[in-house]
Design goal:
About 0% of the residues have low confidence. The protein has an eleven-stranded mixed sheet with strand order 1-9-18-17-16-15-14-13-10-11-12, sandwiched between helices. Strands 4-3-2-5-6-7-8 form a seven-stranded parallel sheet, sandwiched between helices. It is built from 19 helices and 18 strands. The chain has about 525 residues and is α/β, with parallel strands linked by helices.
Length: about 525
């Protein structure tokens, strides 16, 4: 599992460690790990470090110091290193002295720096560190726009990316590789920041950290959570998932949700809705009724809303009245937004909401929250979907807090947020999981219906709401990658559902997933 810690937590751990170490030890550890990664990249690119052209973009503070010390190590190995000082009067003194002692070149003229930047074999981005907020300053913006031929390596976080949230408030320097120290930062895992980070490599520096409130599952974590039947299992012991989906206008949503549910680990699927005839014709193993959830029979979890149309309100009310976990998607979310959080008040069983950002905007409006989390009386307009997409972590947390439910926010990075503890004060921080799988080809009609059925089936099989959401998103993203192939082709939601058994086997067998391109998304819509 990848663990990501907020800046204030990292700073506290660094301070505690530095108090026990000789001065400068921590920075040298970071710089050495950074230099080793850069040397490896240069060797892969040019066959050697000696003679390589390296540019260090050095801002003020310790981030610039890390970059300068790493540049000095590369210079000692024969690289031709030029440091461009973006804050000449505030450059890190020790790092600058080390670079000069290694016969590195130092320039302050930005025209010279930009010329060197464009032809460098490798660029170290040490402009702004993890404490930076907002976009690049005017003196650094030209580097974000300039053409480059070499590899850009960000030091801890790409400059211009908020390390805590992944938000990008202005110009930012896109990296090919980001070397982070001690722990991942949330902004490296969550778009839009993740799309600027490239391949993320972690360098250990000895920090002692508390449990992270942002994590990302990997193959082994998902494999440990997958429900596997035992020798004494039967279909009822494995769990029965109910699906209330589809309508005369959207009958396909019922088929796709059931397709996902059948491949999610539950022993049986009950369908309740107007598409019963179509569902049983396509999936004869499904138990069907044309009524609503109240008369469908016993289940261990309900999926409500995909393509539900005008009947979504009744289906939602009947499902929420049952004392079982309920996943609410699509038209069910529209109805919930109309009702507001009060519709979930008093529920003891888990509730899982699976909105995209447009639905998230409606839900927040229904909860009386604006785009910054304030009450409607403090906001003159409802939240805008594009603003919510740019602040994915905050959006998921606000929804989870407002509705006291687990939220799976779909998009380029799928974020699963738990509500904060009931006794929590101040800005709500429930646990968050970020999905590392997916592809932009998932932005296709019906893929969210498959995801809803899959997650609901995992709920019925006994997984908690955050586990079911995170595992479903992971498998869904892998299935889309498999269906799209390499380098990638359009896929249908049905093809994603059909690929689920294969990726389920891959995860259980421990097969490593294809690395995700930084230009790919992780959508599930």
């Amino acid at each position: 599992m990848r663990h990501a810690h907020r800046v204030e937590v990292v700073r506290a751990a660094e301070a505690e460690l530095m108090a026990r170490l000789p001065e400068g030890t921590l920075m040298r550890r970071a710089a050495t790990g950074l230099a080793v990664t850069c040397a490896r990249l240069l060797t892969r690119r040019r066959g050697r470090v000696y003679g390589s052209r390296v540019v260090v973009l050095a801002g003020s503070g310790d981030n610039g110091g890390d970059a300068l010390y790493a540049g000095a190590e590369l210079a000692r190995r024969g690289a031709r290193v030029t440091a461009v000082l973006l804050a000449p009067g505030r450059a890190h003194g020790g790092g600058l002295a080390a670079l000069r002692a290694a016969h590195g070149r130092v320039v302050v003229e930005q025209e010279v720096g930009l010329a060197d930047f464009s032809c460098a074999d490798l660029v170290l981005d040490g402009i702004v560190g993890i404490g930076g907020r907002g976009g690049l300053r005017p003196e650094a913006e030209p580097y974000a726009r300039a053409a480059r031929t070499g590899v850009v390596v960000a030091v801890d976080v790409p400059s211009g990316v908020d390390a805590d949230t992944g938000e990008v408030a202005g110009a930012a320097l896109r990296a090919d590789v980001t070397v982070c120290f001690g722990t991942h930062k949330p902004g490296l895992l969550i778009d839009p920041g993740a799309s600027y980070a490239g391949a993320v490599q972690l360098v250990g520096i000895g920090l002692e950290l508390p449990p992270a409130d942002v994590t990302a599952l990997q193959h082994a974590d998902v494999a440990a959570l997958l429900p596997v039947p035992g020798a004494e299992s039967d279909k009822y012991r494995r769990g029965v998932v109910g699906v209330a989906a589809g309508s005369a206008r959207y009958p396909g949503a019922a088929l796709l949700a059931v397709a996902g549910a059948l491949r999610g680990g539950a022993g049986a699927v009950r369908y309740a809705g107007t598409a019963a005839e179509e569902v049983v014709r396509r999936f004869p193993e499904t138990l069907v009724t044309e009524g609503g959830p109240a008369g469908a029979g016993r289940v261990q979890a309900w999926v409500v809303g995909p393509g539900g149309g005008e009947g979504a309100g009744r289906a939602l009310a009947e499902a929420l009245a049952a004392d079982v976990p309920v996943l609410v998607d699509a038209d069910g979310l529209t109805e919930l937004a109309r009702l507001g959080p009060g519709a979930l008040a008093g529920r003891t069983a888990p509730t899982l909401l699976t909105p995209h950002t447009g639905e998230a905007a409606r839900l927040l409006a229904g909860a009386g929250a604006g785009s910054d989390g304030g009450t409607r009386s403090e906001q003159t307009r409802p939240p805008a979907a594009d603003e919510l997409a740019a602040a994915r972590l905050a959006t998921a947390r606000r929804l989870a807090a407002a509705y006291r439910a687990t939220v799976l926010l779909k998009g380029s990075t799928t974020v699963v947020a738990d509500p904060p503890p009931a006794s929590g004060r101040g800005y709500p921080r429930g646990a968050v999981r970020v999905n590392p799988t997916g592809t932009a080809w998932l932005a296709t009609a019906g893929s969210g219906d498959v995801l809803a059925g899959l997650a609901g089936s995992l709920l019925a099989a006994g997984l908690s709401a955050p586990d079911a959401a995170a595992v479903a998103a992971y498998l869904h993203g892998l299935a889309a990658r498999r269906a799209a192939g390499v380098p990638g082709a359009p896929v249908t939601a049905s093809e994603v559902a059909a690929a689920l058994p294969a990726v389920w086997n891959d995860v259980r067998a421990g097969a490593a997933p294809e690395p995700r391109s930084r230009r790919e998304g992780g959508t599930g819509r």
